[in-house]
Design goal:
Layout: E1 7-10, H1 23-34, E2 40-43, H2 55-69, E3 74-78, H3 84-97, E4 101-105, H4 114-126, E5 132-136, H5 138-141, H6 147-153, E6 159-164, H7 169-178, E7 182-185, H8 191-195, E8 201-204, H9 207-222, H10 226-242, H11 250-258, H12 275-287
Parallel strand pairs: 1-2, 1-8, 2-3, 3-4, 4-5, 5-6, 6-7, 7-8
Helix pairs in contact: 1-2, 2-3, 3-4, 4-6, 6-7, 9-10, 11-12
Length: 292
C-alpha cells in the first residue's frame, strides 16, 4: 500500500548569492509545493543538487523541510551514494530527524554486479526503520538495475518501491510480473504511461510548476477517466520538454526564479541556463500563464 503519496516533488535546493544553502527559501518553496499538488517532497535528490551538498547541509535540509511540512506532506530524504557506508550513516541520521522515508540511488561509477547492488540496498534498508525507495536511473549511474534484481530486493520488508527512470517500459512490465514492488515514474513524461502498470505515481520535477494538474491526472486515471488523464499529459508535454532542455536542475531553477521563487543559482559544475534556453523556458511559462 502506498502511504507516501501520488505526486512527490523532487525539490530544488534554494541557494543564496554566495552559494550557501538558503534554508528559509527552501522552507518557503516547500510550503508552496504542499499547497500546489505535492503529496510529498524529496529533499537532496538530483534536482536538489545532492552531489555538491555536504552531509551537514543535507541533514539541516531534512530538518527544515520536516518542520515546514508539519505532517501535511511526506518528506523523503535523498541518502544515496556510491559508498555503502556513507549511505548507511546518512540514512541512519535522517531517520533520527524524522523523515518519512529515504530515496537511495543505484551506486554510480563503481558499477557493482547485481550481488553488490543487492547487498548495498539491503544495508541501507537496515540502517533505519523507514520505507526505502530505490532509484534506478541508468542514464546517470551507467548501471541499470534489472527487474530480477529488484524482485530480490522487494523481499526486504522496508524496500517498498522503485523510482524507475529507465524509459524502457518492457523493464517495468517484467517487474510487475515478478513482484509487487511499488513503482514511481522517475521521468515526468513517464508518469502517465506507468499508470498503465499500476504505478504509485511519480517523483517529479514538473510538479514544481504543474503540481495540481499532475495530481489531477493521476486521480482521473484511477477513477477510470483515462482519456481526460491522457489529455492532461499531452498538454504538459511542452513543459516536460522545456524543463529538460538542459541538465536538470538548470531549467527548473531558471523557471522558478522567473516565477518569483527566489531559489538562486547553481553550484559548479552546473551553470545557469543560456539565453536561448531561458527564452524557451519563458515562452512555455507564458503559454501556461505562469508568468506575464
Amino acid at each position: 500500500m502506498n502511504s507516501l503519496g501520488d505526486i512527490l516533488t523532487a525539490m530544488v535546493t534554494a541557494l543564496n548569492e554566495d552559494g550557501s544553502v538558503n534554508y528559509e527559501g527552501t522552507a518557503e518553496l516547500a510550503e508552496y509545493l504542499i499547497g500546489h499538488g505535492s503529496d510529498g517532497l524529496v529533499v537532496s535528490g538530483t534536482t536538489g543538487e545532492s552531489p555538491t551538498l555536504t552531509d551537514e547541509e543535507k541533514l539541516e535540509l531534512f530538518r527544515v523541510v520536516v518542520d515546514a511540512a508539519a505532517g501535511r506532506a511526506t518528506v523523503i530524504a535523498g541518502t544515496g551514494s556510491n559508498d555503502t557506508a556513507h549511505s548507511v550513516e546518512l540514512t541512519r541520521r535522517a531517520g533520527e530527524i524524522g523523515v518519512d522515508g529515504v530515496l537511495a540511488v543505484t551506486p554510480y561509477y563503481n558499477k557493482p554486479p547485481a550481488a553488490g547492488v543487492i547487498a548495498h540496498f539491503q544495508a541501507v534498508a537496515a540502517a533505519a526503520e523507514l520505507p526505502v525507495i530505490l532509484y534506478n536511473i541508468p542514464g546517470r549511474t551507467a548501471l541499470n538495475v534489472e527487474p530480477e534484481t529488484l524482485a530480490v530486493l522487494s523481499e526486504t520488508p522496508n524496500i517498498v518501491a522503485v523510482k524507475q527512470a529507465n524509459p524502457d517500459l518492457e523493464q517495468t512490465r517484467r517487474l510487475t510480473e515478478l513482484c509487487d514492488m511499488g513503482i514511481y515514474a522517475g521521468n515526468d513524461d513517464m508518469v502517465y504511461p506507468l499508470l498503465e502498470y499500476g504505478s504509485w505515481g511519480g517523483i517529479c520535477v514538473a510538479s514544481h510548476l504543474a503540481g495540481p494538474e499532475m495530481k489531477q491526472m493521476v486521480e482521473l486515471f484511477r477513477a477510470g477517466s483515462r482519456e481526460e488523464a491522457a489529455a492532461i499529459d499531452q498538454s504538459l508535454a511542452p513543459l516536460y520538454e522545456a524543463i529538460f532542455i538542459a541538465t536538470n536542475p538548470i531549467p527548473i531553477k531558471a523557471a522558478l526564479n522567473m516565477m518569483g521563487h527566489a531559489v538562486g543559482g547553481l553550484r559548479l559544475p552546473l551553470v545557469p541556463a543560456t539565453e536561448a534556453e531561458a527564452a524557451r523556458i519563458r515562452e512555455v511559462l507564458q503559454a501556461r500563464t505562469l508568468i506575464g
